[in-house]
């Protein structure tokens, strides 16, 4: 065996020192969930900085020829008793003073402490070199290796670099209204205590408007408590933007809210603004909870929802294949629940787990950035049982064993979460997310990465048939669209305990009037088939543009299944908006059945005797200076029937714009919504608003597209060559990429999402040599085939459901229940137990599989 010093000298050129921007994977193996805390520790390649468990490090050495690896091993250090959490789902014992993650006073990320053992290992002979050994080696070897070791140990882990590790809910921006705020000289002076709402006499949750000193109650909370929205309504009437929460004023500051900016803000002139109404900040004391304290209280309520977590019963822990827990990485329970369910589906098991060796063998040089590799790695970890082992009890309490607590070692999918969320404004953060939105996001990524070969998302894909009947002409229009999830409305008026609910509401009003704490409100009981009927009943369209009568009229729309998927996902639409556009969660119990027959909801298609509406588009919006020349506008040509002038604004339906503004949306966004939907009505405009609220230019002034052919089309602006090259590199043609960028205002992320959601349209644009669309020269092309869907009987059985606890999708906790071998199992992050009373009536997402005849 060669001398260690000589071996190091021979490989010295391959040993690198990490530089800023390098990704160092020292917390998780690229192909498994081995980590420094595992028995074998982790090996970090000192050239590529990729991490490997003992099972895969030799494979990497054989494939790449790399010989030098930094071996990192963590050994658990005994902890003294402190105020750490008592367990998942339990509120922290220590006092939280800040709504933050990873910041002093906030929620902790890691609390366990370890001793670290580090050495260099040289393959294939596994020769070991410690820091002490380096001291005896030549200077050039010692300096290079020591610098590399120090750099690797001090570098931030790639998992933490790729995601937002610190989240501070208290970071507030200066209000743009503070510096120039106009305060009325009306003689109003506010006493230091004894405040009441000037409209309803409420004595808590009071806000003083900083423009005129008006004291009014705040917003009504999700559960019906809080205020009566009088401060918000006053802003809508007056436009006075800033208000301070009375009872939170101290010498250090106060809660200030900007209604116009719709956020908590900082007021740089707060002492001056308060003094205007006789309030001396230096003498005030806090008597009300700040908004931060209220939000912390909500985020600590995870352990209170005993029904969904079944915490009232002693649950039997389960371990073994398919029973692996997942560590919560900081509000990642939505991801954990969705992925546990998806890898119960055989299509995902076949695609990723059965082919894992092939996927690993074909992995790129950096497998941490490869979608198929990381999904296969996660799937194998969940199904193999390799990580399904009881976790050691950190408190070493012999009376509370890991088996009784139900916790597992489980897996911490850091690399997977970072990869799936990369570039996404929400899933890249540590904030809580909507499980339904993540399910669709992940399915979308599967679609992107399975353009060729087996696509497991087909198991959920189905066609929806929409039938529209023009009530004036009785002509019909049939359309089909692809979907992956059925959204069931919750008809609250169908509650079977309506009398009890009305009595409770009456009692609540009396208790509020008497100043007594309100009694708990009973949960509404809604029949499942009432929800199904609400989905299937005809919907009235009041502003339907009929191509048969060439004008707006009324129509009815009926929705049916054009195909039934192998696996059906049903979402209960518990999250909605009140009349004041404040989001709220419906507290309902729905008797969701174990078996389901939807055969009666299959669409029939065009029936004998039905007459189809002519295929004509609604008229384009006219501008005042349009010179009509046949069908060409002032900027039209033979290939572009534009009716557009870049100089003057389009004629918009002011009534629709006004209705949207009344809902609180910005004027320019309302104008764009009406323009882009062609004056076709409030419903279409509202749908546009909800779909574009996250656009960076949502509130920006409307800029009309130069040369667009109709409202809603995209500006013929200069397309970014860099964006084009990025999309073309994904396998699409230049024309396809151009079309996607023009459809999304040249925004790359939106263009990528657009192109994958319009694959069936783009299939007609077959790419020939040079990247040009062959469809341009083929005038007689047949229409592209429809999307590939599976079809069969509409009979299903329930096999999983995901439940949410909390007041909003943006906070709270998710758990899932999955039926395995006729036994319901609860997956609550790292806890995996046999379920005693699965709360099927309180679920949010339900997963059904087709019943085999």
TrEMBL record:
One of its GO terms (biological process) is proteolysis. Signal peptide: none annotated. Its EC number is 3.4.19.12. Keywords: Hydrolase, Metal-binding, Protease, Repeat, Thiol protease, Ubl conjugation pathway, Zinc, Zinc-finger. Zn(2+) binds at residues 197, 200, 217, 230. Residues 75-95, 498-519, 766-792 are annotated as: Disordered. It catalyses: Thiol-dependent hydrolysis of ester, thioester, amide, peptide and isopeptide bonds formed by the C-terminal Gly of ubiquitin (a 76-residue protein attached to proteins as an intracellular targeting signal). CDD domains: Peptidase_C19B, UBA1_UBP5_like, UBA2_UBP5. It comes from the Eukaryota. GO terms for molecular function: cysteine-type deubiquitinase activity; zinc ion binding. Substrate binds at residues 207, 219-222, 257, 259, 262. The keyword Repeat applies. Residues 324-851 form the USP domain. Residues 767-777 have a biased composition (Low complexity). InterPro entries: Papain-like_cys_pep_sf, Peptidase_C19_UCH, Ub_carboxyl-term_hydrolase, UBA, UBA-like_sf, Ubiquitinyl_hydrolase, UBP13_Znf-UBP_var, USP. Belongs to the peptidase C19 family. This is Ubiquitin carboxyl-terminal hydrolase. It comes from Aldrovandia affinis.
